[in-house]
Fold this protein.
Amino acid sequence: MLIDHPLLGLRDSSEFIYVGDAKLLNRPNWNSKNSKTKFIDYGYLRKNPAGVHKELWYHEQGDRSWLVVTRNTVTHEILKVELARYLKRKANAK
Amino acid sequence: MKYSGIKVLWEGLRGNMGWKPLWRNPDPKKSYDIIIVGGGGHGLATAYYLAEEFKITNIAVVEKGWLGSGNIGRNTTIIRSNYLLPQNQPFYEFSLKLWENLEQELNYNSMVSQRGVLNIFHSDSQRDAFVRRGNAMLMSGADASLLGVNDLKKMVPFLDFQNSRFPIKGGLWQPRGGTVRHDAVAWGYAKEADSRGVDIIENCEATNFLVKNGRCYGVETTKGVIKSKKVGVCVAGSSSQVMGKIGINLPIESHVLQAFVSEGLKPVIPGVITFGAGHFYVSQSNKGGLVFGGDIDGYNSYAQRGNLPVIEDVCEGGVALMPMIGRARLLRAWGGVMDMSMDGSPIIDKTNIKNLYFNGGWCYGGFKATPASGFCYAHLLATGTSHNDAKDFLFNRFEKGRLIDEKGQGNQPNLH
């Protein structure tokens, strides 16, 4: 698989480490209500869809950036690649 | 149908015209005592043990494709009980004991061949870890012995003992481990379950569950609604898809694992051999092909195919361990979808919907577990309580912090 890195262009997926569902970006607040349930969900439960999946890839053999890759888990087609830090900044700005 | 030497002789004389299909092809009845969703190895074993051990025969097994079309036909056929943790090892030893008697019990030749499993180690610290594991195996009643370099040189002289990076220091040897003809396991269980009255319904996909007031009372299928007192889900790589239909998120990711077969060679590999410094395991089939595999591809996938970097990695591991196979040509490679759990261990448990049960999360160790998984799941479905050897395979171990993590990798399914 080739991942179209927003800064570096097409890179081989073997340069990356796969981390998992992009929900890992949204760590619950430990101080919130029901934080125990939220952390169990965050740590252990996954939607694991057959189809479009947003997931985290870490470019370890490259510029060490975190990417959010939107990929089809049935066909391995990559639909969208974004820098995780931009998404996070956008979300924080809101 | 009963197989015997006399029957083979008789059929040979009559032009083999008397062989019958091993199982019927029934239409679903309106209702059953138990419906098992998923006609793979585990589902069929569950149906068989429910009928044989727990005398419940009003059962349907519904299967989306044809029988044995999933991982039971896509694995590297290894059986062993060489686990470390006390929650796992007795279960796998129970499974190995069931394997040892499987052919007699099912009256079916599944070619159970206890040719031994050898785990190679390459450093002093790895030897310590393997000694510890061997002791855990012995404590569960399994067999294990530690072999030194001289033993290995007699047994498997073709290994690269002097490899400068990963010199071979010895191996952990389990003689009772081995290989099994994988498809025949599904067929054998199907035959015996069917002969006890279990309806095996192929090409019948479970599309939803019938749930009312928090109780499950059947499934909707592509062949209509089927009611039942209990439903047991047992669908390996499709676990999240099936349980997702009623909104249950599982501690599971689906990943693709590839397996490989070389062209047929003369007998060279005596048993199952695993590389301790990379991920590579190999055995030789009775037809002569080297059957080998390694790591999963490492990203969520429902495609029953993998990618080239892992093929390269597996082959590199193989050649590092036994350079002689460098010239063997790869004949086939295929992928299966693995239900990788968050701690690398399975789940056989009730769900929070009454009368709905779940069996899954086998990672890529499900084949060897087939008999015990079926037995323990049948125990749970029949009695409502966990079998003693599977009492820790529960959903709540994640929230309770009682993970069963053989490799100590944490909640990262692609590392198990």
